[in-house]
Design goal:
The chain has about 70 residues and is mainly α. Helix content is about 80%, strand content about 0%. It has helices at about 5-25, 25-35, 40-45, 45-50, 55-74. Helix 1 packs across helix 2. About 10% of the residues are buried.
C-alpha cells in the first residue's frame, strides 16, 4: 500500500474510533451507520482537507453529513 492510501486508511480509522466513542456505539454499529450514509467514502474522498481539521470539527461535520443524507432519504 502506498503512503497516501495508508494515510487515508489511518485517518478513516481514526474518524470511526472517535465517532464510536462520542456516540457510545460499538465498532459494528459505527461502521454500519457510517457505511449506510456513505460517510466513509466522504472521508476518503475529501481526506486532503478533512485531515487538517480538529477532532471536534470532524465529529460535527460527520453529524451534519448524516443529517443531510437522512433528509434526502425522507
Amino acid at each position: 500500500m502506498d503512503k497516501r492510501k495508508q494515510d487515508i486508511a489511518y485517518f478513516v480509522s481514526f474518524c470511526i474510533e472517535q465517532y464510536k466513542k462520542a456516540k457510545h456505539l460499538t465498532s459494528a454499529e459505527a461502521i454500519d451507520l457510517l457505511s449506510h450514509y456513505q460517510v466513509l467514502d466522504y472521508l476518503s474522498d475529501h481526506y486532503e482537507i478533512l485531515h487538517t481539521q480538529s477532532r471536534q470539527w470532524l465529529l460535527e461535520d460527520i453529524d451534519e453529513f448524516i443529517k443531510l443524507r437522512k433528509e434526502k432519504e425522507a
